Amino acid sequence: MFRIVFFHPEIPGNTGNAIRLAANTGCELHLIEPLGFSLEDRYLRRAGLDYHDLAPVRVHRDLAAAWEALQPDHVYAFSTRARRKHTDVAYAEGDVLLFGPESVGLPDEVLADEHITDQLRLPMLPTSRSLNLTNTASIAVYEAWRQHDFRGSGAPTS
After folding, report:
1. Strands, sheet with 3-7, edge to edge from the N-terminal-most edge strand
2. What is the C-alpha radius of gyration for the chain, rounded to an integer number of angstroms?
3. Could you tell me the pTM of the whole model?
């Protein structure tokens, strides 16, 4: 399936919800240190409920270690500054969907990384600053999965 990567996540509840997202969609969740919390954090545990054992979660010491482990063909970096919409690309299984920290998004040096295939954004009203991190990841994952007819979901196919 797809691989969700959170670069320096700060809020445990968002990461807990991402664990739940990964468990429900068959995605992997990769976290790039430093994390703004402990993986034992009670808020992370509560948000993830009993999904922790159902989702593959890996922690990487830095972005270089993540690239080494992931060996990605395509990396889509999500940013409010991007021009292309998340619906403008054809996702392939194994693609990496990269998201930045809640307070500042992905830094320029990450957006300029040679592994980044494209920068994408989710449309929103011009008066809005950003969406919640896990909401953004959910929308992106479900668009990518929709493009693959929700393969593996057990739902009837069209």
Report:
1. 57-60, 28-32, 3-7, 96-99, 75-78, 118-121, 84-85
2. 15
3. 0.94
Using alpha carbons, select from 120, 133, 44, 128 the residue that is nearest to residue 83: 120
CA atoms within 13 A on the CB side of 146: 9
Which amino acid, one-letter code, is at 55?
A: A
- Here the tokens at position 2 are 């797809």
Place of tokens 């980044």: 116
22-70 pLDDT tens trace: 999 999 999 999 999 888 867 777 766 677 788 999 999 999 999 999 9
Segment 2-7 mean pLDDT: 98
> Tokens standing for 17?
């919800």
Residue 60 host element (H or E) = strand 57-60
Q: pLDDT tens digits, residue range 92-124?
A: 999 999 999 999 999 999 999 999 999 999 999
The amino acid that residue 17 corresponds to is N
**HSE on the CB side for 35, CA within 13 Å?**
21
Helix 133-146 and helix 12-25, axial crossing angle in degrees, nearest 10:
10
